[in-house]
Protein: Heterokaryon incompatibility domain-containing protein
Amino acid sequence: MDPFLLFEERLLVPYLCAEYEECNEHNFIDYAKTYGFDVATLILKGDNHSAKDLDDLAAFLQAWLVFGLLRRVLGPSDMSVRLEDLVSGLNSDETESVNCKPGNELSELQHSRVDTAGLVLYFMYWIAKESHVDDPERRDRLWAQHVATLKMTNSVVNDLIAWRSRYYPIQDGGKGDVPVLDSIILSIVLLSEYVLATSRAIFSDHSWSLEWGLDNALLSRLLRAGWCPGEATVLHNKFIHSTSLYIVGGFDRHSLNKDHSRCSKDECVANNIDESVYKTKHVSDDCNCAHVGEANDNHPSASQLLREGSIPVIKVYSSGSRSRGKVTISVQDYTKAPYVAISHVWSDGLGNANANTLPRCQLRRLQGYVNCLYPKSFHPVPFWIDTICVPLERQVRKTAIRRMGQTYKNADSVLVIDSWLNQTGLDGPRAVDLLKVKSCTWTQRLWTLQEALLAQANQLYFQTPEGPLVESELAYGPRDMGIGIMERIIGSEDDNLHEVYPDVAKTMILALSNRHDIERKVSKYLDDKIYFDHGGDPDYPFRNFHMLREINSWLSHGFILVEGRNFFNNMRWRAAGKSNAPFIEANTLSVVGESMKNRMTSKAEDEPLCLATLLGQDPKDILEEKSVQERMKLVVSRIGHVSAYIIFSRCQRIDEEGYRWAPLSFRENSKMYSPGVSFTTVGQVCDKGLLVRLGGIVLENDDTHNVPSEFLVSVGSDLLFARIDGEMMYPGRPVCKGWALVLRDSNGLSVTGSEAVLVELLGEDDGVFLAAFRTHYYVSPAIQDSARKEGIIPGRIMGNQQWCVG
Ligand SMILES: [Zn+2]
Ligand SMILES: [Zn+2]
Structure:
């Protein structure tokens, strides 16, 4: 894969908007009105549009939100957009086919197409040009303008995406041609993300991203790559950028040969295990070598070691030829030598539901992988794999599961074997490799989370065709090639812009050739602590330094890299268990919960088990309970302290009085939900609920049965507007004495509003309000409206009240 994705994996769409008047920075806002475009009317008509209408719409959107958007953001930086740089085949008769076919009326335009590769130069020149402008006021103004432009684009396009997927859903599981309109929509989405990433590099380091619906063209791309509809839904919820999804849609998943025939849009079940039909796989499909279990010799057995309080690990000895030689397994105590714990997903075929055995070919392969992690003198390196080391016999099995946390914590290293990563490898640009890890089956599963979280620092390895790759190399290794790409392009014959902006080109070329000098100077400036006052130094190095750094980061897909790294770092956040730092301990549940998001498991009741292990709890009594809810109650009742914000979390809750503050599952597959980390306010778990100290509003209405879904509430001289913000509603309790809204951010109330939960007040105990959770609300400042004075509910602000939410 080319180090720069826009060259290799570019989106090609037909050039459609030749007939439209140029849209630019000045007429951008009124452009839609000029052409009578109204997204609401469009949606109202549902699927009642002629093919011609849809083609016209595609052309108009390209004029407005592709070329218009580009001119709108580049215009203020005195850069013009030339069609010949972005549209190929503009003046030729070539009839190369494009990856989306236009409608009938547009086929004659097929020979010219918009090519995202041309954008790379524009963005490089944009960064270079702006990084030498020293005007903070202008920078803030342009940033605000670009944000507004992108937000508007985002809102229009998300409406279009929802309309298209409802009334024009993709056909044939994505195999058919993608309609031109859908391709144009995707091109706007990707362009917007690039514009935002570049604007941020230039004007602001503000961390903010756009959220897009899953558009038809992107969905088709994912399905064509071999992701199933359920996986596509999860990926869309899990990934921040559509550009990331676009890259993920370029990976081949067909080679995995998994059965997605029972999957739906809501769920992928291909990796769930049905033990009655589960088949252990051999290294190759045509192999049928014998299975091997632990040898009956003088060594202690795995079960015996577990009963004695130890953890069994194994060594595989093989002799003779690959096909006929002897393979034996010897079991030993984990403390005897450093061992490797293997982390795999059962659907890849390394499990066995009927016996503690594996085929000889797999055992040889595993021992080979594990040996690669250590020098020869340590071979054969002992390792742990659940298939052999967790006995099937019920009681010992429970013991082994209880010791799972210890197993991974005590391992010298953890080796991840995901069959897809082991096929495709992790040798591309870092940004792409991290997306592979973020999307692979191994990170889709629940059990592998603890294996990832508990591995020792920098001792997590990924098996690839080239051998094991250590995590630090994956996340931070030197595979970012931005500067190299820049050197290759700027001033070359591919650089269409160097004659248009000769000064900018000169600056870039000069900075590239003086790169080391600039870095030296910068570090001297930093040593002398004079980075603010450059005293008119004509060689002031920082601008060139920033320019090179930002272009390098941009060409290395910095924003995608950050997304992948954040995901990875979250997964490697080590569960502290019992820690003396109350705020960190209190957030453990939230952070672990955040990492559980979007993960799947064959058995829902395994989640509390994993959670307990990650929280450092002994899951002994959890194993005795059957239901998810009873198991979860045990976990949360032992937790002691937890972030107070967890009461605002939008996951499904434990449906029992006293527990409604607590999640039933973190694996909610939704973009919206976050378990809420807080470093300022911690709740304490007690038998009636969660004790929290938060602001709130006590409603002084007489109706103890009902609260309207929307109402105005007056507190002092302020008027607030409260509206319901969720569907969950638990039955009211007979003892309800009144209502209150508990606020997440009572300070922000007068400006932006705050998330809130509606609670029933059940009584007061030593200054603590006993409160029963009902549902989510949002409270914001009301626009004063004298006509609506009636029906206003008077309220009393409680600044820092103790609530017991249950
Ligand atoms: Zn599936
Ligand atoms: Zn075999």
